[in-house]
Design a protein that fits this description.
Length: 331
C-alpha cells in the first residue's frame, strides 16, 4: 500500500512540474527530494520519470529544459549605439508600426511616459515626407506644436533614443550648410542656414521579439520576413480589430446589405430607344514642345539648386522634379 501511494505521488509531482515554467521547475526539483526519500524507504527503485531527470545523480535539470528566455531590454545609453550605422534596430517606414513600437517600449524606460508618446506621435506624423522615413527634427517647431519647453522636448527625445526607437542620421549644428554645399562658389549673398537634425524611426529587437517577428539580417538594414505562430495570430487579430474600427467609423453599408431609401430614378423605355449619342468637341491640338539637351541640362541644374534651398526636396529625383517644373523654368 505504501509503495502504491509513493508511486502515485511521484507521477502527480512529475505531471505538475511539466506544466510549470523553468523558474518553477528549479524549485520543484528540490521538493522532489522528499518523494525520493519516501520511495527509498518503501524499497522502490529510482527509475527515470516522465520529466527526464537523472534520478541517480544530484537534483539538477538538463540544460536543454532550462532554455534561457529573451534577455531583458537594456537602455541604449552609449552615443555610438544611437547612430544609424551602428544601431541594432531595423528601419521603419510606416507611422503605425512606429507608434505601436513606441507604445510597447515606453514601459521599459523608468522615466518615459505620456509625454514621450506625444513626442513619438509628432515624429510619426512627419514620416510620410521622406521616402526612407527620415524625420527632420525642428526643436522650435516641436516646442510650439506640443506646448512644451525646449528642455522637455530634448529630454524625451533622448528617452526615445535610449529605447532604440529613433537613431541619428545627421546631427544638427550651427554650421552653415549652404556654405558646405556651394563649396568654393559660396558667396555672402547665399545666406545662412544651419544643419538640420535628422532622425530615423526604427524598431527595437525587443519589440520584434514581443510581436513574433522573424527578422533576417542585423541592424538598420534588417528586414521582416515572416511571423511566428503567436505573431501570426496577433497580426490577424490586429487586422480584424482595425477592420471593425474602420467599419464602425464609416457607418455605411453597401446597397446589397441595406436597401436604398430614396426612390430609383431609372426610367425603363420598352419600345423606343433613347438617343444618347452626342457630338464630342474636338480637343485643341497642343503644339509639340521640343527640348534640346542643353535646355534639359539647364533644367536639371536649376532643380538641384532648388533642392539645396528647400529641405523637403532633398530626397526627390532631380530629373522627375525638373520635368514637373519645366513649364515654370521655361517661363
Amino acid at each position: 500500500m505504501a509503495a502504491q501511494t509513493v508511486r502515485v505521488l511521484r507521477n502527480r509531482r512529475a505531471q505538475y512540474v511539466q506544466r510549470q515554467g523553468p523558474a518553477q521547475q528549479v524549485l520543484a526539483v528540490h521538493q522532489v527530494g522528499a518523494v525520493r526519500q519516501a520511495a527509498a524507504g518503501a524499497g522502490l527503485p529510482p527509475a527515470a520519470g516522465p520529466t527526464g531527470w537523472d534520478r541517480s545523480g544530484p537534483s539538477t535539470l538538463p540544460v536543454t529544459s532550462l532554455a534561457a528566455p529573451f534577455r531583458p531590454f537594456e537602455l541604449i545609453e552609449t552615443p555610438e549605439a544611437q547612430e544609424i550605422h551602428s544601431t541594432a534596430s531595423r528601419q521603419l517606414r510606416r507611422a503605425g508600426d512606429f507608434l505601436s513600437a513606441a507604445r510597447y517600449m515606453v514601459r521599459h524606460h523608468p522615466k518615459a511616459g505620456p509625454t514621450t508618446l506625444r513626442l513619438a506621435a509628432a515624429v510619426a506624423s512627419r514620416m510620410h515626407r521622406s521616402q526612407h522615413g527620415h524625420v527632420p527634427f525642428n526643436v522650435p517647431a516641436t516646442v510650439r506644436e506640443l506646448g512644451l519647453s525646449r528642455r522637455t522636448v530634448l529630454t524625451h527625445a533622448r528617452y526615445l533614443r535610449e529605447l532604440g526607437l529613433i537613431v541619428w542620421v545627421e546631427h544638427g549644428s550651427k554650421r552653415n550648410v549652404l556654405r558646405t554645399r556651394h563649396g568654393s562658389d559660396w558667396q555672402p549673398g547665399h545666406g545662412y542656414r544651419g544643419t538640420a537634425t535628422l532622425y530615423a524611426p526604427v524598431a527595437p529587437p525587443a519589440w520584434d521579439h514581443a510581436q513574433g517577428h522573424r527578422i533576417r539580417g542585423h541592424g538598420y538594414r534588417a528586414r521582416l520576413i515572416s511571423y511566428t505562430q503567436a505573431g501570426r495570430r496577433r497580426a490577424v487579430t490586429a487586422a480584424q480589430r482595425s477592420a471593425r474600427t474602420a467599419k464602425q467609423a464609416s457607418g455605411r453599408c453597401t446597397p446589397s446589405v441595406v436597401g436604398t431609401s430614396a426612390p430609383s430614378r431609372l426610367q425603363v423605355v420598352e419600345r423606343a430607344k433613347k438617343n444618347t449619342s452626342r457630338t464630342r468637341k474636338a480637343r485643341p491640338a497642343h503644339p509639340a514642345v521640343r527640348v534640346t539637351p542643353a535646355e534639359c541640362h539647364q533644367a536639371i541644374t536649376l532643380t538641384q539648386q532648388l533642392q539645396r534651398e528647400v529641405w523637403w526636396l532633398y530626397d526627390a529625383w532631380s530629373r522627375r522634379t525638373a520635368y514637373a517644373l519645366r513649364p515654370l523654368i521655361r517661363a
